[in-house]
Specification:
Aspartate Aminotransferase, domain 1, seven-stranded mixed beta sheet, four-stranded antiparallel beta sheet, transferase, PyrdxlP-dep_Trfase_major, histidinol-phosphate transaminase activity, pyridoxal phosphate
């Protein structure tokens, strides 16, 4: 087949909205201080690593995993405080759960609505699932614009609204009363995405059954288990029963189930690392605000900090940090409200110190 014939087939059969997309870019691993992906920087201590490896050695890889992940669900119910009467479903990361929610309600003219700037995958997955996508700009200090959100609900009649709480990439937790009004006014589902719940002061999970249209989504990625790709969705059994029809069999593999069960048996280690990150977040925010050339550091209830540098400097600073062995996220260009902004994951004390030193050098270069 000629190159032109192949190109013609691609043009003819690939959906236009997919052709227009750019794939989500993940920088390749490198020998740098990696503070770009909101990961927990503390690995398992040696003794626990050995015990975890032993647990994995006992997994029968010639057999399919538990299709319902029964034991893991029970552990997660207890660890997360899932309300009695609520049901939960596990996904291969939050991304799979977002896709399943969209597929549940997708149809001609159906809309996904989110505030922006927000999690990039909301837009990508909406378009991948054949839905229209609409953003509502955040207000001052990245707070929800309640009037604009309510107007968008009336105008777009969205099938699903995604609200990251706290928000990524800004780090703030939206006003709770505003979210409550959005849930009441939304004609379809509202998914409160609590990926950073462990670092925040509030949650909608305890009230998930109080609203007929609310689902709460979480992940274990940010608390130290990013490599497992394990997310969970909680809501009324009526919604979850419909979603289960779309979930592919055996979506949570046996090694993930065994690893997550082991981690939840040793939850104290995860809790300690979360507490350490919260402490380091405060120290890093204070120090970052004193660096010459840093214009603004926004308060955060997540495990990262978003900050602004002088106009036109973000890309040069980002590249300067890479040249000095530190990788963070360049937000400049991703959304108009994020001009000149960068985002740094809270690392271990030594990593944070190296970042601050490299940032000071890059800004003074």
């Amino acid at each position: 087949m000629s190159e032109s014939s192949r190109s013609a087939l691609v043009d003819a059969w690939v959906r236009p909205e997919v052709r227009a997309l750019k794939a989500y870019h993940v920088p390749p691993p490198a020998d740098v201080v990696k503070l770009d992906a909101m990961e927990n920087p503390w690995p398992w201590p040696g003794a626990l690593t050995s015990a975890w490896q032993q647990a994995l050695a006992e997994v029968a890889l010639n057999r399919y995993p538990d299709a319902g992940a029964t034991e893991l669900k029970q552990r997660l119910r207890k660890a997360m405080g899932v309300p009695e009467g609520a049901e939960l479903m596990l996904g291969n990361g939050s991304d799979e759960l977002i896709l399943l929610v969209n597929l549940l309600v997708a149809g001609p003219g159906r809309v996904v609505l989110t505030p922006a700037p927000g999690f990039a995958m909301y837009r990508i997955i909406a378009l991948n699932s054949g839905m229209a996508y609409r953003e509502v700009p955040l207000g001052e200090d990245f707070e929800l614009d309640e009037a604009a959100m309510l107007a968008a609900l009336r105008d777009a009649q969205p099938a699903v609204v995604y609200l990251a709480y706290p928000n990524n990439p800004t780090g703030n937790a939206f006003n709770r009363e505003t979210i409550t009004r959005i849930i009441h006014e939304a004609p379809g589902l509202v998914v409160v995405d609590e990926a950073y719940y462990a670092f925040a002061r509030d949650s909608f999970l305890p009230e998930v059954l109080e609203y007929p249209n609310l689902l709460v989504m979480r992940t274990v990625s940010k608390v130290g288990l990013a490599g497992l790709r394990l997310g969970l969705l909680v809501g009324h059994p009526d919604w979850l029963a419909e979603l289960e029809k779309l979930r592919l069999p055996y979506n949570i593999n046996a090694l993930t189930q065994a690893s997550a069960n082991f981690a939840l048996e040793h939850r104290a280690q995860l809790d300690k690392s979360v507490a350490d990150i919260i402490t380091e977040r405060g120290r890093l925010a204070e120090a970052l605000a004193t660096v010459p050339g840093v214009v603004r550091v926004w308060p955060s209830e997540a495990n990262f900090l978003t900050f602004r540098v002088s106009p036109g400097q973000a890309t040069a600073v980002h590249q300067g940090l890479q040249g000095r062995g530190v990788l963070i996220k360049n937000l400049h260009g991703s959304h108009p409200q994020l001009s000149d902004c960068l985002r740094v994951t809270v690392g271990q004390p030594g990593e944070n110190a190296r970042f601050l030193e490299a940032l000071t050098d890059a800004l003074s270069a």
